[in-house]
Amino acid sequence: MNMSAVTCETFPEQKDAKTSRIGLIVPSSNTTMETELPELFRRQSEATGHHYTFHSARAALKNVNREELLAMVDKAGECARAVSDAAVDVIAYACLVAVMAQGPNSHEKSEKIIASAAEENGHPAAVSSSAGALVRTLQSIGARKVSMVAPYMLPLTQMVREYIEGAGIEVVDAISLEVDDNLAVGALDPQKLPMIAQGLNREGIDAVILSACVQMPSLPAVQKAEDLLGVPVITAATATAYEILKALGHEPSIAGAGGLLSGAYAPVASRRA
């Protein structure tokens, strides 16, 4: 029998200049961020010609309770090292409530841990978190008063409310859907969200947070809710996508996902200039 050897390249494949690699750190039970974010960036690619690939690391989480959330946070550095092996350009820590469970402004600490782990692994990357992205995005569009929908049990919804208020944004009203199983959160019907949001107290608000959770599906409802409610509609996923684009230096050009990602809402500083 004749045998021949095949030589494989041992050096890393060079990335095309028109492609960006996005790293995600997600809960092990997450079924939403790895569908909604790629769809958002597919639309961005369609508009701009730039391409995006996604590379994920997962941390154990089944039930959305304080104990499991804190245990997930402990894995952030390990997950960052793993996903940075793919030489990603940006890392998004996609579990909003896991960070918020640590107390006010905890996104700053979590983002530093992830950035340090990636750098120490030899692959530095820009870092965002869905918790930090949500509050910073609201601040950037000048939202001082918001109302929100969250899938969590009431105590966790209250914790998210306090976290947002700790960033100087008043939460006028919050609806809690009281689902604690993370897979069940991912199975919620996003088409019901506009009707649910209509039940919020919206007097004097500047924006609605349609989904204060990266696992609760919302993308099919964002534009519909924004058209219906007449105020900016933000979700944990759209805020995360917005920050990823900013980190990459790309202007948002995403259709059908609200004014934030279409580029309609210039940052407050720019509007004042």
UniProtKB/TrEMBL annotation:
<dbReference type="Pfam" id="PF17645">
    <property type="entry name" value="Amdase"/>
</dbReference>
<dbReference type="InterPro" id="IPR053714">
    <property type="entry name" value="Iso_Racemase_Enz_sf"/>
</dbReference>
<feature type="modified residue" description="S-(2-succinyl)cysteine">
    <location>
        <position position="95"/>
    </location>
</feature>
<keyword id="KW-0413">Isomerase</keyword>
<feature type="binding site">
    <location>
        <position position="30"/>
    </location>
    <ligand>
        <name>substrate</name>
    </ligand>
</feature>
<feature type="active site" description="Nucleophile">
    <location>
        <position position="95"/>
    </location>
</feature>
<comment type="subunit">
    <text>Homodimer.</text>
</comment>
<dbReference type="InterPro" id="IPR028615">
    <property type="entry name" value="Maleate_isomerase"/>
</dbReference>
<dbReference type="GO" id="GO:0050076">
    <property type="term" value="F:maleate isomerase activity"/>
</dbReference>
<feature type="binding site">
    <location>
        <position position="182"/>
    </location>
    <ligand>
        <name>substrate</name>
    </ligand>
</feature>
<dbReference type="InterPro" id="IPR026286">
    <property type="entry name" value="MaiA/AMDase"/>
</dbReference>
<comment type="similarity">
    <text>Belongs to the maleate isomerase family.</text>
</comment>
<feature type="binding site">
    <location>
        <begin position="95"/>
        <end position="97"/>
    </location>
    <ligand>
        <name>substrate</name>
    </ligand>
</feature>
<feature type="binding site">
    <location>
        <position position="152"/>
    </location>
    <ligand>
        <name>substrate</name>
    </ligand>
</feature>
<feature type="active site" description="Proton donor">
    <location>
        <position position="213"/>
    </location>
</feature>
<comment type="function">
    <text>Catalyzes cis-trans isomerization of the C2-C3 double bond in maleate to yield fumarate.</text>
</comment>
<feature type="binding site">
    <location>
        <begin position="214"/>
        <end position="215"/>
    </location>
    <ligand>
        <name>substrate</name>
    </ligand>
</feature>
<protein>
    <recommendedName>
        <fullName>Maleate isomerase</fullName>
        <ecNumber>5.2.1.1</ecNumber>
    </recommendedName>
</protein>
